[in-house]
Write a structure and sequence with these properties.
By secondary structure, the chain is an alpha+beta fold. The chain contains 3 helices and 9 strands. It is globular and about 45 Å long.
């Protein structure tokens, strides 16, 4: 279990610290934090996160390159054994990137699906039943 984040901050119920409810929620939260983090910005590990500004954002978005970078980052999460499937798209009108991927998670017998949606308003990670992992 991990400390549960609520709206991007440490969660409390009164004075009690909230914890993630299960392994799946922990892995989802860890993926959200990893993918939302900007490479080089965390002082304790400057190699943590995605290089959004250096390799992804810009006028010309190369979907294949973005897919490769995100897959590599997903596989860095220690509890992700492998990526079972990965589908993505870039909207031609809004240029928003979204992807759906299924991962095999350590100690969970089923494969879990996650969805990433990025827009000018932020970044969201959802589970296969559209449950939001964390709000932007």
């Amino acid at each position: 279990m991990d400390i549960k984040l609520v709206n991007g901050k440490v969660g409390f119920n009164g004075t009690d610290l909230l914890l993630t409810s299960d392994h799946l929620e922990s892995v989802g939260q860890r993926l959200y934090i990893r993918l939302k983090s900007t490479y080089g910005k965390w002082f304790l590990n400057t190699e943590y996160g995605v290089d959004w500004f250096g390799k992804i954002f810009g006028k010309v978005k190369n979907k294949t390159r973005i897919d490769m970078l995100l897959k590599d980052e997903i596989l860095k999460e220690g509890y992700v054994e492998k990526i079972e499937s990965f589908k993505s798209s870039i909207s031609p009108t809004t240029r928003a990137y979204s992807c759906t991927f299924k991962v095999k998670i350590t100690n969970i017998s089923t494969v879990q699906e996650f969805k990433i949606i990025t827009t000018q308003n932020g970044f969201s990670l959802l589970t296969d039943n559209n449950k939001l992992i964390l709000t932007p």
